[in-house]
Write a structure and sequence with these properties.
Blueprint: H1 7-36, H2 39-64, H3 69-93, H4 98-130, H5 134-163, H6 169-183, H7 206-223, H8 226-256, H9 261-284, H10 290-308, H11 314-342, H12 348-377, H13 379-399
Helix pairs in contact: 1-4, 1-5, 1-6, 1-8, 2-4, 2-7, 2-12, 3-4, 3-6, 4-12, 5-9, 5-11, 7-12, 8-9, 8-11, 8-12, 8-13, 9-11, 10-11, 10-13, 12-13
């Protein structure tokens, strides 16, 4: 009997999910700014939704080491589709308000966060199922992801031009449904966690299992390996700065410039650069030392941020974003390789659930802080502060002892 292929439907599902997220990443901030007219409201929404997002990540991580990861991924995509589809539906009937954004943001967190963790934990099993080299697959997968994230913001800009920002969210919902349907083509056996001897009804409550999972995840991420610990810390710092840019600084800047459609094209330029960088990494991954890729990536990202940060002109912002993306194309698959290679399968649900939960703490806090900064000193000054933070991050990345001999 021919062995079912798992990688093709897994990649296709990820493509659909990323396409929807890319469109939502452009449309949602603009919809929120249009409905509230206040950058601080957008930052407040991020903080309000942070708690349910973290809880969803923690409980999702606990479930993923006990239940089928493929099935949870499917369920998460369906919930995400429903929460996004409700936004244009409510806007067309009773009208969107800040309260609706909060309610649907909380519902969306129940789907988005466990779904993201489910994909993370499912990937190594899918690669093993098909006998694919993990390091090369990470490079190829990053290249495909980069291509999707190029197309997504551009599609968002075009669809917003024809449909309006709110109705463009129907596309996000449709892609989430397509992601769920495609994930069903992944063999169900690939989603079974390695620790099969423990029943999901082992006498402990879900809350206790979630607490134990978080404790175990923190141990794995921060105490088991110095390279893994440094990778997680750097990832969190990158999320803080880039989350502030993509979620607050750039949307506010282009809204003030009366050019909201340019947001999609700048994010596409960043993704074009990321695609080029990840393609080069995929082709020459073994030609250079990992430390060399690492240094090239962080130095290049610092140069890109230095060009992007002052928000001097639309052209310079576009070029800086493209170079920043290109340089990040080396680091993303490299960090992914470390994460998958250093975390045992039986702990991946706990580790990735904890990592995603941490990111869900720092990202909203960063967006809220940047909204306060924008209100206090203006968007350009806030951008320069973030640029200085990125340069400090670069110094830390190059100097930290754990990453000197990787």
């Amino acid at each position: 009997m021919t062995k079912l292929r798992a990688t093709a439907p897994f990649v296709a599902s990820n493509v659909f999910s990323l396409m929807g997220n890319s469109i939502a990443g452009v449309a949602l901030p603009l919809v929120l700014l249009a409905k509230t007219g206040d950058a601080l409201a957008a930052g407040t929404l991020a903080i309000i939704c942070a708690v349910p997002q973290v809880l969803a990540g923690v409980f999702g991580g606990a479930l993923l080491d006990r239940l089928n990861r493929r099935d949870l991924s499917v369920a998460s995509d369906v919930i995400s589709a429903a929460s996004i589809a409700a936004l244009p539906l409510i806007d067309a009937t009773v009208g969107l308000s800040f309260g609706w954004f909060v309610a649907l943001g909380i519902i969306g967190a129940v789907g988005d966060i466990p779904g993201m963790t489910a994909r993370d934990t499912l990937l190594p099993a899918v690669v093993e199922h098909d006998g694919v080299d993990l390091q090369r697959f990470m490079g190829v997968a990053q290249s495909i992801d980069g291509l999707v994230v190029i197309v997504g913001p551009a599609v968002a800009s075009v669809s917003m031009g024809f449909l309006g920002p709110t109705n463009a969210l129907w596309l996000t919902a449709g892609f989430s449904v397509a992601a769920a349907a495609t994930t069903l083509l992944v063999p169900r056996a690939a989603g079974v966690p390695a620790r099969t001897g423990r029943s999901s009804n082992d006498g402990a409550s879900l809350a206790r299992r979630a607490a134990a999972s978080t404790k175990e995840g923190m141990r794995v991420l921060f105490k088991s390996n110095a390279v893994l610990r440094a990778s997680v810390v750097l990832g969190l710092l990158i999320v803080i700065v880039m989350g502030s840019y993509q979620g607050m600084v750039l949307p506010v800047f282009f809204t003030q410039e009366n050019a909201p459609a340019l947001l999609g094209y700048v994010l596409s330029a960043m993704s074009v650069g990321s695609l080029a960088g990840s393609l080069i990494y995929a082709r020459f991954a073994h030609a250079l030392k990992r430390r060399t890729w690492y240094v090239l990536s962080f130095v290049g990202m610092a140069l890109g941020m230095a060009a992007l940060g002052p928000l001097a002109s639309h052209g310079i912002v576009l070029a800086g974003a493209a170079f920043l993306g290109f340089s990040s194309g080396f680091a993303s698959p490299l960090f992914g390789y470390f994460m998958y290679g250093l975390i045992p399968d039986e702990h991946r649900g706990a580790a990735f659930g904890t990592q995603n939960s941490l990111m869900l703490v720092v990202a909203p806090a960063a967006v809220f802080s940047s909204s306060l900064a924008i209100e206090a000193i203006g968007v350009r000054a806030a951008s320069l502060v973030l640029t200085a933070a990125w340069l400090a991050l670069t110094v830390y990345a190059l100097a930290t002892k754990a990453m000197r001999d990787i």
